[in-house]
Design goal:
Blueprint (H helix, E strand, L loop, with lengths): L6 E7 L3 H9 L8 E6 L6 H7 L3 E4 L5 H15 L4 E4 L11 H10 L4 E5 L13 H18 L11 E4 H6 L11 H11 L4 E5 L13 H22 L20
Parallel strand pairs: 1-2, 1-4, 2-3, 5-7
Antiparallel strand pairs: 4-6, 5-6
């Protein structure tokens, strides 16, 4: 990796017009090569606003879901020469000013992926995190740690940075188009021997930030537990789902 790697920010966006400008303005632009926004058929002018701000914009003609959006994000970032790809949600819930802290350990060669964790630092509720979400996060992360044999303080953060090596080593195109994509790409990374790093972050919960409700959160939790059970079967050599099958040649993404 070069001394100054090409860092590309990717933003999976859906109806983010109210918060996009504040998010972009908080990014440390001088050390970022490009910002890519993938608009998932928003109805509020998100894509037009992003284009007017000088972002590189890709538009889905139909809504593909959070995971489907990320597939386009990573495919396009790699095609544009990214050496490190940072996912920043355009809803301003995660602090964009912390991007370089995520990138740093990857540049140093300490890890292949870095994650911001809301569970580190003891400031879980200061940004307004609902208590039910905190409890669910702790329980699902505990299940993740037990069933994978790896330890993370949080496996559900949406503030992430991946090296090019990581994204080319996993078949992210085989993942779900829904929210469990984030968990699948972690499990793929573990299977491929990738190294992880976490750092504490603060988050903001407010009306315009995208949030998952209780019922949707329950569905996500059950899907995550089912996915972890499947992963355990894979590790036991009993069954390997499609998303964990190793690529025959090269990677699951464009080089």
């Amino acid at each position: 990796m070069n001394a100054q790697p090409r860092v590309i920010i990717v933003m999976p966006a859906y109806n983010a017009a109210k918060t996009l400008r504040a998010t972009v303005e908080d990014l440390p632009r001088d050390q970022i090569a490009e910002i890519i926004l993938v608009d998932d058929a928003s109805r509020d002018g998100t894509a037009d606003l992003a284009a007017s701000m000088g972002l590189t914009v890709f538009r889905h003609p139909h809504n593909r879901g959070y995971g489907g959006n990320q597939k386009t994000c990573y495919r396009e970032a790699l095609a544009r020469g990214a050496e490190i790809v940072v996912m920043v949600h355009p809803d301003h819930q995660y602090d964009p000013r912390q991007v370089l802290r995520l990138v740093d350990p990857i540049i140093r060669g300490d890890c292949d992926a870095a994650f911001g964790s809301r569970m580190l630092g003891g400031r879980y509720f200061q940004g307004g995190m609902p208590k039910w979400k905190y409890v669910a996060n702790v329980m699902l992360t505990a299940a993740f740690n037990v069933l994978t044999g790896r330890f993370l303080s949080e496996c559900h953060s949406g503030f992430r940075a991946y090296s090019r090596r990581y994204l080319q080593a996993v078949r992210y195109e085989a993942n779900s188009d829904n929210f469990v994509f984030d968990l699948q790409i972690l499990l793929q990374g573990i299977d491929a021997g990738m190294r992880f790093h976490e750092l504490p972050i603060d988050t903001r919960y407010f009306d315009d930030a995208s949030q998952v409700g209780v019922l949707a959160g329950m569905r996500y939790g059950l899907s995550s537990l089912a996915l972890l059970a499947v992963y355990r079967l894979h590790r036991m050599g009993l069954w390997t789902p499609e998303f964990l099958r190793r690529p025959a040649e090269g990677s699951g993404a464009s080089a």
